[in-house]
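User: Hello, beginner here. Can you help me understand these amino acid letters and fold codes? It all follows right here:
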Amino acid sequence: MKETTKILHSIPVDELTGAISTPIYQTSTYVQEAPGVNKGYDYARSNNPTRKVLENLIATLENGKNGYAFASGLAAIDAVVKLLQSGDEIVAVDDIYGGAFRLFTHIYQKFGITVKYVDATDTANVAVAITSKTKLIWLESPTNPTLKISDIEAISKIAKANKVLLCVDNTFASPVAQKPIELGADIVIHSATKYLAGHSDLIAGLVVTNTNELGEKIKFIQNASGAILAPFDSWLVIRGIETLPLRVKQHSENAQKIAEFLLTQDIVKNVYYPGLSIHKNHHIAKQQQKYFGGIVTFDLKIDDKEFATQIVSQTQYFKLAESLGGLKSLICLPCEMTHKSIPRESRYESGVTDSLIRLSVGLEDVDDLINDLETAIKSLSKKISSTA
């Protein structure tokens, strides 16, 4: 069965009514036949039929055993970290999402969980960083925002050899483009806010486990902590996933053309996109990804925050906003937006300069998007020339 068919037909027809669209079970509780005797549902924090369809769907798409839906991507990350205990250590990719950095550093560090940040594009860095205290390796591939690619399969072998869990944030790729569990990951997380939902209209997070044992632990944390996804938002994510293969394919095609355009611009220093042959680990991306995704980042030859601000403030179709993965194109300046919580020195070490600009390439006509960027870049070039 092909991917698109699998997605559409992994969403069941409602057994009670025959509804082809998953019903929204907007209820907080369920009537029981007798104390403790029910139809598999007793309280909506613990279980909800709409949420269950989504959880089964993401487990199927990632080829995992179990899926769990949370109120946000950070709630999903939080649930995974709660598998650890005081004294444990995480080895994490250095170019990490700012929200994950904030959670690790400002919340869990005070509870005795430490984090080592390494450049995971070289698997040797991961192997060297592991100690007897390491219990979890945390990868993003591609990373946010410089789109670093790590060899998930090679790192999974390192994790297994050291009896360490491997969690991969698969938000940027999506299960249409990449399946980390097939490459050896133990846990996959998603900010479903992004490509899975795909319409910039909700906040959601998902966790997928490769074993029932891990699944039971995440399920316990989900129920005990209570950061569950509401029925209506669950339904919206299900609806978004129905068109995921079509959207990811078009996002990727547009992003490739925009990355190639940016390479031709004199004002641009670096272009980061896994689909470019010049990308450091392009060969690995080709092996483990079907598509290269819809995110392109670039920085300027003059590393000036004000110059970068002029570009992100002048585009017409690329809207200045946080988040990514929606139908409409977005542009942001990570140093002042998504990654502001990371100290400047740490940002620079991982490649997030003051002039780094992140594009979430949408589904508009790519020629219009290129013209939009070209206009903003030309305007800045004229300003630089006039002040030289």
About this structure: The mean pLDDT is 96. The longest strand covers residues 134-140. Residues 3-242 form a domain with the Aspartate Aminotransferase; domain 2 fold (CATH 3.40.640.10).
